[in-house]
Amino acid sequence: MADKPHVVIIGGGFGGLYAAQALNRAPVRITLIDKSNHHLFQPLLYQVATAGLSPGDIAEPIRTILRHQRNVHVLMAEVIDIDVDARQVHLADDDPIGYDHLILATGATHTYFGNDQWSDLAPGLKSLENAVSIRKQFLTAFEEAERTKDKALRRKLLTFVIIGGGPTGVELAGTMAEMARQALPRDFDNIAPDDARVILLEGSPRVLKVYPEELSAKAQKALEDRGVEVRTKSRVTEIDNDGVFIKEERVEAANVFWAAGVQGNPLGRCLGAPTTKRGLVKVNPDLTIPDHPEVFVVGDLAQLTDAEGKYVPGVAQGAIQMGQYAARVIRSRVAGKAAPKPFVYKDKGSMATIGRAAAVAMVGKRQFSGWFAWLMWLAVHLLFLIGFDNRLIVLIQWTWYYFSYKQGTRLITASYKGHENPRLNPAMAAYEVGSAEQETEATV
Q1: Which of 8, 87, 91, 230 is the most buried (most CB within 10 A)?
Q2: For residues 400 and 178, is the Cβ–Cβ distance under 8 A?
Q3: Where are the domains of the chain?
């Protein structure tokens, strides 16, 4: 394979993985680089964060997925720089890797809109590590509340603030409310369903603002029916150890989670191409960058209005289609054929779940909500999960939860000390759940 054109793919998410698979049997050699060893099904991260699924249910080792593809070499490594003039990718602890074609599919990360000091106080949800950490904090809040006799402290411990009313925020808030009011109180003696308070804050006039107003309204009602306090036109002005400020109003909360915005991966700026204020790379209609037709940017990191004038959203389907398109362009170049027509995004719909048997969905101009939309959501997410075993396990878990109201992975597996959550009462700081020797976390 040494004489074949070398395609380097950075990122094993939807864009990078589907690009690699689309180059199967192509006369190229592929190096796929990711700092993790697994492909993550990000749309279900909130299920891990709320104890519905285990990490291994929504992730699969990249090597396992591509084990039958002979032209792929997988590297677990961290890329720290890209030299587009020399056509080299620089790794943190190894020699540079040269390429003939590069596909950058590193996705996006959190943005705190210039308030990076909030990151430790309001963790976001972009990785398995984030999800497991949020799960630990969420479950431990109930353990701490069970032990305290201080009513004010208990209320603070059981107040959960989610900042951002997009799909991630809505899904987190709805599921946390169901857990806090229906599932968890059954297991505690000193906690009543009404003790928990879930607050969803959104700066714009409505949640799920990319959806039609009617679906946004239905989503908000479904959240409120589950006990979520939905507060629109509410911008957070400060976050500290004791809660959040909404302008001058203070909300005491021991648990604050961030779902308000994303920015492009910093590697995008290494390309020298134009970027947006959020660090997204502005790409050409064929997903390449100006002056470097050998460099493609796909997925959440790319900023594109396609050939038909449609904005390509940062969702899984956008990343999949972009990755596959970049692979088609490379195939045509290697074969000496004419390039494909400019990229056109095929909108296959969007959906968000609010909780058990409640969701909203938009397919073309058709709108769905409630139980039927929830079934659609289940089917689509099962379809795109990698691996038959994962699909079967997740289907069994969801079915069990539907009939029993019991989430299946309510484990606090890592050693926990109160100081890990800076909002906990100092008197609680020495309390430790479990021990390092007892860790039983199922990892990928």
Answers
A1: 8
A2: no
A3: 6-35+77-111+262-334, 116-260+349-427
For residues 8-39, one letter each, b for 16 or more C-beta atoms within 10 angstroms of the residue's C-beta and e for the rest, the string is bbbbbbbbbbbbbbbbeebebbbbbbbebbbb
The closest of 276, 201, 195, 289 to 239, measured between CA atoms, is 201
Matching residue, tokens 């989503």 = 219
pLDDT tens-digit readout, 283-295: 999 999 999 999 9
Nearest to 73 by CA among 117, 25, 29: 29
Mean per-residue pLDDT, 153-176:
96
Secondary structure class of 125 (helix, strand, coil): coil
Element (H, E) at 228: strand 228-231
Q: Could you list the active site residues?
A: 171
Q: What is the pLDDT of residues 386-442, one digit of tens each?
A: 776 788 888 887 777 766 666 667 778 755 444 456 555 443 443 333 333 333 333
Helix (H, G, I), strand (E, B) or coil at 133: helix
**CATH no., domain 6-35+77-111+262-334:** 3.50.50.60
Judge whether residue 117 has pLDDT over 80. yes
- Fold of the domain spanning 116-260+349-427: FAD/NAD(P)-binding domain (3.50.50)
pTM comes to 0.88
Distance separating alpha carbons of residues 323 and 16, to the nearest angstrom: 6
Q: 281-285 contacts: CB < 8 A, separation 24 or more?
A: 281/104, 285/342, 285/343
Q: Which residue has the tokens 């297991």?
A: 187
What pLDDT does residue 173 have? Answer: 97
pLDDT digit string, tens, across residues 47-92: 999 988 889 899 999 999 999 999 999 999 999 999 999 999 999 9
